[in-house]
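Fill in residues.
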């Protein structure tokens, strides 16, 4: 049996949590209405603003990335028309969420196929009363990075709000919330930031504040977060151990330097892609000139001679966890995450084990 403390996980989240962050979780509880929490929240907020490259308001919610997605939609949409773009599982989630709060206009592609900007513009011009566009920047279900800056520019051209899921890109890729014109951006704790799951953060522009609905869901009411932030608090009881962990994780990001962290993510992903090509395997996404392979997760078509379940089981026996495909991609692709605080040596270990497994099956 593999010792869980020695297991190496290369998933599209959650990511391995380094001992320094694990120790932070065990800190004694504090008064979440007191001065210590206020100081911690100020550190967290300032660090997130630097990582998101924004001067907008930033709030941390005790909930996963999906909580942030729903907070964004539910504070902007109440019966309004919204364009939700999807080429993967999490784009589909945006469509689902948007459909619960408003009149969703879906622009759907086959999972892993690139978004076409002409299609976006065509829908925007056809649907004259749209209020917003929602899109996933980095779609981990199929390893593709979508053209967020270009879609944001279309939204601004037509005076629409732009909501961006940056859950698996912010902190590991060059994301510029203000420069791109993102009205609400979302990041998850358990991805590139390297913290445990359970928290998300949203950055909210002044344009978004001006167009928010009345009476959004109580727990995700962003106006309540804005009001409480003025006192250095959250409106509802925060998940304190996870805040301790996020505080420490963000300190690590700051110590490494954001640009260096982004370069490391790029390097680790290129190591995986180079190995895949060297072995004669095929990357999954179909790219166009405005999309790219993700630098936080690589999706690979499963070759003849081995199944995804067999591959995952055999590398699992060596103490390594990788991901398979989701829903209709199950059994067709496998995925290797390269986000958080993973280092080159970790990826080298995984690639060595993968190559040996594939060689033993006569695949490479």
């Amino acid at each position: 049996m593999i010792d869980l403390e020695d297991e190496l996980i290369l998933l599209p989240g959650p990511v391995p949590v380094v001992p320094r962050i694990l120790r932070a979780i065990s800190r004694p509880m504090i008064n979440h209405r007191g001065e210590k929490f206020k100081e911690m929240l100020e550190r967290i907020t300032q660090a997130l603003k630097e990582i998101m490259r924004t001067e907008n308001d930033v709030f941390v919610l005790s909930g996963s990335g999906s909580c942030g997605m729903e907070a964004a939609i539910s504070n902007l949409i109440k019966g309004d028309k919204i364009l939700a773009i999807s080429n993967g599982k999490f784009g589909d989630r945006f469509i689902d969420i948007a459909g619960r709060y408003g009149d969703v206009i879906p622009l759907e592609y086959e999972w892993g196929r690139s978004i076409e900007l002409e299609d976006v513009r065509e829908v925007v011009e056809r649907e004259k009363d749209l209020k917003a566009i929602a899109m996933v920047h980095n779609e981990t279900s199929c390893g593709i990075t979508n053209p967020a800056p270009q879609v944001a520019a279309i939204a601004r051209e037509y005076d629409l709000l732009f909501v961006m899921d940056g859950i698996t890109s912010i902190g590991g890729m060059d994301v510029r919330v203000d420069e791109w014109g993102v009205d609400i951006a979302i990041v998850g704790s358990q991805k590139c930031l390297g913290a445990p799951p359970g928290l998300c953060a949203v950055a909210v522009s002044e344009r978004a504040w001006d167009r928010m609905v009345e009476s959004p869901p109580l727990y995700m009411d962003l106006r309540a977060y804005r009001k409480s932030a003025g006192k250095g608090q959250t409106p509802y009881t925060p998940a304190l151990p996870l805040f301790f962990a996020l505080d420490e994780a963000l300190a690590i990001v700051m110590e490494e330097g954001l640009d260096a962290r982004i370069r490391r993510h790029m390097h680790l992903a290129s190591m995986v892609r180079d190995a895949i090509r060297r072995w004669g395997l095929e990357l999954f996404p179909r790219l166009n000139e405005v999309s790219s392979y993700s630098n936080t997760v690589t999706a690979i078509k499963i070759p003849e001679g081995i199944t995804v379940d067999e591959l995952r089981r055999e590398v699992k026996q060596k103490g390594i966890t990788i991901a398979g495909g989701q829903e209709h991609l199950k059994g067709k692709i496998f995925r290797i995450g390269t986000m958080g605080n993973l280092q080159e040596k970790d990826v080298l270990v995984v690639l060595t084990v993968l190559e040996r497994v594939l060689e033993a099956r006569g695949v490479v």
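The chain has two domains: 4-15+258-360, 20-254.
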